[in-house]
Design a protein that fits this description.
There is one protein chain. The protein is built from seven helices and two strands; from the N terminus they run H-E-E-H-H-H-H-H-H. The protein is mostly helical. It has a single domain (3-30, 41-186), classed as Arp2/3 complex 21 kDa subunit ARPC3 (Orthogonal Bundle). Helix 1 packs across helix 2.
Length: 192
């Protein structure tokens, strides 16, 4: 494949994945499945797939897209969760880092884990886990500068609920992202 064709494929893939992130963000219960007070995120799956396929530049672009749409979406809601995520240090910064962590992890593990499916499984789980850890860390570091201030009891409850959601997000990433990547590879849409 020529360099121009590779660049065109990357731009096209990023455009499609960015559109998917936007659609999943704004269609109710598609990218953020509401479970009461909090949402389970599955919009991280296109970010994981794209960051693995397109590398650090794609991971950065998709992380920024996810973060900005997450922040904007939070500004349109009136929930406790939304009040926390209107702070860009909680909604945007962790998502940018997640996109980069995924892409650099995928590149770094290529020499260690030769089997694509196994490597993609590890990277997918790592990506979802890094999202949970980074968002929780950002909440505790920066949430008081947003619209909500936490007392210790509320922070423990919030941590438990987010951690439970994080577990479901890790499970969904581990199941879906490597499976989609394998299907793309078999369909010859992705060059190994």
């Amino acid at each position: 494949m020529t360099r121009n064709r590779q660049r065109l494929m990357m731009i096209t893939s990023l455009g499609l994945l960015m559109a998917m992130i936007i659609i999943m963000t704004y269609i109710p219960n598609l990218g953020y499945i509401t479970t009461g007070f909090f949402s389970i995120t599955i919009v991280h799956i296109p970010v994981i797939i794209g960051a693995i396929l397109t590398g650090p530049i794609g991971g950065l672009v998709l992380g920024v897209t996810w973060g900005v749409t997450s922040w904007h979406y939070a500004t349109t809601l009136g929930t406790i969760e939304a009040a926390i995520f209107v702070n860009p240090l909680v909604s945007i910064l962790p998502r940018i880092l997640v996109g980069l962590i995924i892409s650099y992890s995928s590149l770094g593990l290529k020499k260690i884990i030769r089997f694509d499916f196994a490597r993609n499984l590890v990277v997918s789980i790592l990506g979802a886990l890094s999202n949970t850890v980074l968002v929780l860390t950002a909440i505790f570091l920066f949430a008081s500068s947003g619209l909500v201030t936490f007392n210790q009891g509320l922070s423990y409850i919030f941590t438990f609920v987010i951690s439970l959601n994080g577990s479901l997000e890790i499970l969904s990433a581990g199941l879906l992202a490597p499976t989609v990547l394998k299907a793309l590879s078999k369909a010859s849409l992705v060059k190994k």
